[in-house]
Design brief:
The chain is mainly α and 243 residues long. The chain has one domain. Strands 1-2 form a two-stranded antiparallel sheet. The longest helix is centred in the middle third of the chain and has 28 residues. The N and C termini lie far apart (41 Å). The mean pLDDT is 86.
Amino acid sequence: MNYLILVFWVLSLFLSTSFIALYVRKYKKSDIIIAFYVVYIALSQILAAKIAVFWNWTAPAAVIIFPFTFQLTDTMNEHFGQKETHKMIFIAFLTQILMVMFVWFGNSLEPAVYWWVDNEQWLLIFSQSIAITAASWISFLLTENLDAWLYQKIKKWTKGKMLWVRSVLSDIPVLALDSVIFVTLAFGVFSPNADWVMVPIIILGQLITKWFFGVLDTPFMYLDRFIVNYKGGKNVKSLENES
């Protein structure tokens, strides 16, 4: 993996975290978190089909998106509560269904004779396999909702202290579970040409990359809290029951 890409990845996480936190602080609303979350989920659905190389191991390219999505579930949970987090996950799931439907609609249309793109190549890039789509939806619903529940449980156990503990201890096991469920289903159970030798290798690659990126995003939870509450700004946690 190119280290320059890693630098830009961190920069993009910094910019998105800062923008979201500034918006939440000013407007005390969760719509910006939902908007970013929906975009990231759509991107992960597309990138899941590509197996990429990360240093000395391989994993679906979508692993670079998951730390963003799990950070946003934690951010929503932190400021607006578990109920709003589950609502956001449900909204994102509906948008995934619509995205797949409209991609299928578009792919079903007859291409114009003067269109310069090879239609077979287009379909190869933009047609999601049933196996990957089904595996993605199942793992998404299970792990994202589990992450929302676990975050609140840990927050209560720690009495709202040690932000990094609830961020890490909710994300790390759930990211691992997501890898196991998605890879096992997409490249094993649902795949017509399953290669069970490669399944644990892909799972391991996902685990390593997701945990690496997952740990990197933890400081940005503190950045979010700092911006939202800077100079005595109203703490949006008090809006949990109003939103």
